[in-house]
Design brief:
The complex is a heterodimer of chains A (about 130) and B (about 100).
Chain A (H helix, E strand, L loop, with lengths): L6 H25 L15 E7 L7 E8 L5 E4 L11 E4 L4 H34 L3
Antiparallel strand pairs in A: 1-2, 3-4
Chain B lengths: L9 H12 L2 H7 L1 H28 L6 H34 L3
Classes of the chains: A alpha+beta (about 130), B mainly alpha (about 100).
Chain lengths: ~130, ~100
Amino acid sequence: MEINSFGPIDIAVSGLKAFGRQMEIVSSNVANARTTDAGNGEPYRRLEAIFKTSTDGISGVELDDVAEDMSDFEKMLSPGSPGADAGGYVSMPNVQLPTELINLNLASRGYQANAAILKRYQKMVESSLELLK
Amino acid sequence: MAINFNPDISSMISKAAELKTQGVAEVQNKGNFGKAITGYLQDVNDQQDQANTSITELLSGKNKDINSVVASVAKADMSFKLLVGVRNKLVQAYQETMKMQI
């Protein structure tokens, strides 16, 4: 197998990008936690990042798809609201803030872990170069 | 952006060993080691250029992905450090040779 010293860098950076995208999705969910109109007559539907490997074997990661969470919308009693149905209920997004905060932590920790790998790998290469001296 | 890069200088060393076994005339004709160094120098220069371009693109708003910039700068930095290491070793070898008693 061909040795590619930039392999770990590419993989760690793909991880950084992937978790950065996940952060983007989490922030979209949190920002739209109370959005009753997503433009299609429905409230905002929670999004979820789905990752896949870039290649077979040793591989980086990439965002495969941004899937919609198909669970039921929440019903909130608000008879005075213009969007209320006959029973006085309004459909609210299926975003659960505690879940989003957990995902936020996961994305942030994943990002940090990939950054740590990148940093450590640079140190490893530097110690190899020390041998030249 | 796959830049294949071999940090072990064994290929260069084997080229140097190859030169050693060849006659002096042949060495002058071929200059393999010099070519290897010049080629590597060119590669490192290209990577530095690439890193520079990506920084400029990020700052000018053309590219909004900071992680690609990190990747290209990290690669350029790594290759440059190797180049400096090899260069120092070469200078050291030259100085050792000059100190030799004739």
